[in-house]
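Continuing the series of single-chain predictions for the mutant panel. This is the parent chain; the variants come on the following pages.
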Amino acid sequence: MNLSNMETASMATEEIRKEIVIGTGNLELAYDQWVALPVSGTQPSARYKHAAAVVDEKLYVIGGSRNGRYLSDVQVFDLRSLAWSSLNLKSENADKLGDSSPQEALPAISDHSAVKWGNKLLLLGGHSRKPSDSMIVRFIDLETHICGVVETSGKVPAARGGHSVTLFGSRLIVFGGEDRSRRLMNDVHVLDLETMTWDVVEPRQTPPAPRFDHTAAVHSERYLLIFGGCSHSVFFNDLHVLDLQSMEWSQPEIPIDLVAPRAGHAGITIDENWYIVGGGDNRNGCPETLVLNTTKLVWSMLTKGKERDPLASEGLSVSSALIDGERHLVAFGGYNGKYNSEVFVMRLKHRDSSRPKIFQSPAAAAAAASVTAAYALAKSEKLDFSHFNLSSKGVENGLVKQDVTIEIDALKEEKKTLEMSLGEVRAENSRLCEKIDEVNGTHAELSKELRSVQGQLVAERSRCFKLEAQIAELQKMLESMQSIENEVQLLRRQKSAFEKELELGKASQKQGSGGVWSWIAG
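Parent structure:
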């Protein structure tokens, strides 16, 4: 390529860059569509299982893994200039001691989490070449570029990677992960950021299966949501909810037709919407971008790319950025057969928030509908305007009377509709009660069968114990028989030796008597 062509290509790239940057404010970018950004500067190494966060329109990418090698760099992408740069960290110890010699400010690390707190990025956990028994919390000061370790106290959780970290007020909630021995976990720990004190939470009810590479989010400042992830053999697409007030786990029953099992995906919450990007099952990547309405607990597909799209990767990151007053998703990295280093951005369409709902079972929902219908019915009865005096003279009063009559008729129709709805809800409640009675009856029969089987099992165990005792006695008898047999063999040998000695004695006597008589006869 000659110089003029290179200049033309450079100018074209710059124009695209300007259109995208300016377009965020001039509606040039289409809503809810991923766009790969043209970048300038030295691009960072492609990677996955890194940590990322957006602060002041800059994407910070920390560490990660590539070809089995952990990374220790911090890369910064400016969402305005679309340029990459490296952040040169200074070690906290070197800064305190005034040491200018090069030190490793941040160890090579992967599978960790990053959270913005004040003017710092907090890095929790992760795998590195320098293993630790307990979870390490590191910090990066975005103003001074100093990196160090935060001193924590309390019940510090075990070191791990592939866990989730969720900001809840001034606390961080850590769930699950995999330790350096590949042991999977499903425990819950809380770090108070005001006191830097750890505590362990022991919720009731059935927790999610131990897992790693899942995602987590907080809804309504009360519920912790856990989605997906994997064990060493199973990939999950389930959704679990931890009530942070009652400390009870639950698993809502929601349609998951759109949701394929996945791990290594990324998630970010904006208002009541939880955006899920990428992930896979070690065979296929997930090309769709999903949205979970955390109020209604309804999944929907926002967009879908190709199966080999860089966004259909495991170990990618997704962050939220506010540019020109509009929310954007920013995705980076991942692995889908090859390591990726592209930056993708999605301009989000504003979505109206609906009235919050409580996570309910079908029975609870029916009960709530009954209460709502009854309330509306009572309200409509109270709004009966028949006692108003509308006999005033004049056309205006006549019109008012006519309007009120129409409104009363409409309210009566609404009352009938609500009464019908209430009847349907009551019928549904009756059907649910019948199903509950049927289930209780089945449970009673199964309990009876279980007790019967348990009785048979106890009898069989008793019989087994008796057989084992008889076998032990027989073994003892066999051992005694062996000793008797040995004694019999010894007696037989003694008898044989005695018989031989007896025969020898008789022979010697015969020889002696024959010699004397011969001597006399001679």
